[in-house]
Amino acid sequence: MTPKARTVLVYAGLLGAGIGAFFAIRHFGRSLIAPIASGQPAQPGSAVPESDNLLVHALIALLAIVLAARICGALFRRMKQPAVIGEMVAGILLGPSLLGRVAPPLSAHLFPTLVLPFLSVVSQIGVILFMFLVGVQLDLGLLRNRTRAALAISHASIVAPFLCGAALALWLYPSFSSRGVSFAEFALFIGVSMSVTAFPVLARILTDRRMHESRIGPIALACAAVDDVTAWCLLAFVVGVARAQPGRIFLTVGLTAAFIILMLTLVRPAALWFVRRESVSSSSSQSTMATVCAALLLSALATQRIGIHALFGAFLLGVVIPHDSALAQEIKTKLEDAVVAFLLPVFFVYTGLRTEINLVHGARDWIACGAIILVASAGKFGGSYFAGCLTGLGGREAASLGILMNTRGLMELIVLNVGLDLGVLSPTLFAMFVLMALVTTFATTPILQSLKRTESGDA
Questions:
Q1: What does the pLDDT look like over 244-273, one tens digit per residue?
Q2: Is 369 helix (H, G, I), strand (E, B) or coil?
Q3: What is the 8-class DSSP label of residue 423?
Q4: Cα(429)–Cα(155) distance, integer angstroms
Q5: CA distance 168 to 165
Q6: Which of 67, 127, 128, 157 has the CA that lies 20 to 30 A from 412?
Q7: Contacts for 25 with CB less than 8 Å, ≥ 6 apart
Q8: Count of CB atoms situated within 10 Å of the CB of 448
């Protein structure tokens, strides 16, 4: 049997085994009964007494967000952590978990109720633009030229945590879900939540630790790139299933597949033509960016209307733009600072305003939270480690890769917010998964440092 045929056979078996295992989990979960949904926790803040003051309160809220994000980001950078972790923590600190608990009047003044919808819209625009930038900077060559090792590791690092999460749903569903959510939807979403890897944060860690030129660096980037694309496709499927009525599920999934094919077969060649034309054209930079923004809005609107999230359309449009083109560089130069320094902190704080750590109380809740962190870490690390060893990596290299793939960061928060908006995640479960995202991302750098010191000591 040729190596190519063997690879196809192995992946067909892996896919078949994964699907079979999920349907087995779904079978056992059919008889589970979730509790009746409780009322949503009160939103932080108080009403703004006069509508004329809305702009003033919005500006005050944005100022507090930007300052807190920069301060916490700088503190975590001094701790040899990516600044994004500090910005995630800033969002939690400004929410009801801390500020709303220790200084309710100040929290109500900074984030009154009428300002929250404004922050929601700004945060969603920030996420849409960020996912567009992630797509623009994604090197498809990592996917086309990936080695068999990267392919095997990336798929194992998705299948293993996905199935572990779906199995954990058997325990979580009767206690933390609601009867309005089917077990299949719940298990699918928990599985996807466990499978995410934050490609941008992982790339930043590799660069900061100068690992991007090592043997493990390109493999980790390729695995994370494949993970990102696969995870977003899975999430699009889950969102389509959750949003569609029973008779429209297949229509939503079909329209999503048609949109992806349209983007890759028609829009991508058009994007290549546009890039070539702009490279020799004398048209203004503003006209070029206006065209790109119009295409971005159309693509995001299309996926929103299909029944999945607008961020999928933004991500796909970014993917079809050649990452090494002058246009991609111009987009990055003009958008990245505004998105990262201003819009994303709004998303972090809005997530923090929706996160109530106080809802996690009692031994049962904290045991469940610990189990989520353990299963998420073990699934990602175990799938990556064993696949790495089987494809020829050394034990320490495979361990380093497993640790890197556990980086979740911002990508996990995006997934969790989608789940909360859909009602698939309860506020309590949302808080648990936010803690999981923080713990797994924060742990990456110190564990890598510890592994490197151990390796140096052995040497």
A1: 665 566 777 788 888 889 998 999 999 999
A2: helix
A3: T
A4: 26
A5: 5
A6: 67
A7: 163, 166, 167, 169, 170, 187
A8: 18
